[in-house]
Each structure stands twice: as C-alpha cells, then as structure tokens.
Amino acid sequence: MDEDINSNGDMDSPDKPQSFDMVQPAESEPETTEVAEVSNETEGQSESVTIPVTTDKPQSFDMVQPTANTTSETSTEAQPAEESKPDVDIVRPEEIVAAPVVVASMQTAKPAKKSMLKKLLVVLLVLVLMASSAAAAYYYRDKIANDFEAKQATNLSTSNASVDDLRTQLTAETAKYNALVAAQTTPTSVAPNAATIANIKSAITSANTAALEGYMASSVNVVIAASDGVGVVTPTKAVTNITSFIADATSPWDFSLSASILSSYGKGSYKQYFPNNAVVGKSANSKVISFSFDANAKISTVFMSANENILD
Question: By CB neighbour count within 10 A (0-12 exposed, 13-18 middle, 19+ buried), where does 310 fall?
Fold first, then answer.
C-alpha cells in the first residue's frame, strides 16, 4: 500500500512531516505558483526552458492544509530544495477548537464561584440577624413576663392580706349587728318574780350593783341615751357601766313612777326601752334607768339617761 501511494505521487514522501499547527507570523517563504516557458533559439534549434516564477504572499493564520504533490516531472524538477524542518507533534483540529472553550469555561467558572460564595455569605448573614432578632425578642418578652408575674404576685399577696383583714372586721361587725338586732328586736319578754324585782331595785338604791350580775343574761345590751351607747357586753361589763352611771346620782331613787310618766317616756324615740314589764327608776336629780327582760326573765337590756328631758 505504501509503495503504491509513493509511486503515484498522491501523498508526500515520508521524509516530509505533515503539520496541522497554526502558522506563526514568521519569515515568509517563497511559494511557486506559476511556471513560465521561455523559448531559446540558438543556431536554428529551439529549446524550451521552464523557469519558476515566485510570488511573495503573506502567510496566513489559517490552518495549513496539506499540499498535494505535483504529478508533473517538470514542475517537480523546478521546485527548489526545501530546507528540512524539525519534527513537530501533530495537533488535531478538534484539540485546537476545544482549547479556547476550556479556557473560556475556566474564566467563567471563577466569577460563578465568587458569586455563589457571596450569595452564601449573604444568606448566612441574614440567618444570623434573624436568629439574633428572635433571641432578643424572646429575652425581652421573657423579662416582661417575669416582671409582670412578680408584680402580680406582690399585688395578690397584698390583696389577700387586705381581704383577710376585711374578713376579720366583717366577722366582728356582723356579730355586733346580730347581737344588736337581737337585743333591739322585742322578744317575748317574761317579767321576773317579785323577789327578783325587789333585789334589782335594792341594788340601785344601795349602790350594790354587783348583785345585779346574777340576774343578767349571758349578754346584755347597754344603751346610753343621746350617745352611741355601749352595745352588747358581758354581764360584768354591764355592771361596771351601771356603777359609773349612778355614781353621781342623787338619792332617793323612785321605782314607783306613775303611769303617765311612764307613758311620756314611751312616746319618744326610746319607747322600745320602756316595755310594760320593765323596771324603771328615777333619781332625785332626774337620772333614769330601765331594765328589760328576755324570755327567761333575765335582764337583757339596760337603758340609762342622764336626764328625763331627753326622753320627751
């Protein structure tokens, strides 16, 4: 096969290396493009001589195509001997075309990586800011909640103390009110026997008020006219109040008052303290004392007035 190709002249001889390299803008080489025939007549003989005509053309940057061998022996003989060229590695066209693509991809890859890195940094910064904001909001809300709970606990403790105090006061006032209502409500009254009545009168006239305690109920309502009174007290306290009241009274005491006098005492605002079975006495200086009894014939109410004029 190689011998046939060389004999036909279709391919370059193996001594000449073929190259697909890009032609560098170096020295221009002469290229034979035309062959001129010159007729030389000498002594009646005509001889034709072939002279190669060369034209200098600038080298192209295009890829060098392989030059076909000239079949004409004349042109082959006319070609000047070419200088031997150093062996150069064969570069395939597809490799030349692919090289710029690789370079371009490398150049575009770097900006793409930088852009991606910037985006990641921005996203990371946004996440950090969001986390910081969330943490600050949680801390602020937690602090407000704790302060509010502490304040509520303090207010609740104060309120509980106030409620307990008010409850105690209410209990005391309720007891007083119930006792007062019970004392002021006229129950079924039973008059004591004559001996008891005589002993009550004697205790006032003799100023032996301690004897009265045995005739009193478990609680006694002591009322002083033209004042807020004393209220419901124990028998001992009631005896003390009676002793103080009669200390400046002038003897004698009159416990046999007429019906008209008793009726006048019952017309005023204190008529409830002068029931029909009450034991009423008046001193010489017009002090008035009245004893009312409960259903057990015990002294339940003691009414005292510094002057009978107050009772009109």
Answer: middle
Residue 72 has pLDDT above 80, yes or no: no
The mean per-residue pLDDT over the stretch 65-83 comes to: 47
Q: How far apart are CA 203 and CA 224, in angstroms?
A: 19
* Domain ranges (residues) in the chain: 2-91, 94-156, 194-311
CATH fold of the domain at 194-311: Nuclear Transport Factor 2; Chain: A, (3.10.450)
Q: In this structure, what token pair is assigned to residue 178?
A: 């119930």
pLDDT in tens, 197-217: 999 999 999 999 999 999 999
Q: Are 289 and 241 contacting, i.e. CB atoms less than 8 angstroms apart? A: no
How many Å apart are CA 141 and CA 110, to the nearest integer? 47
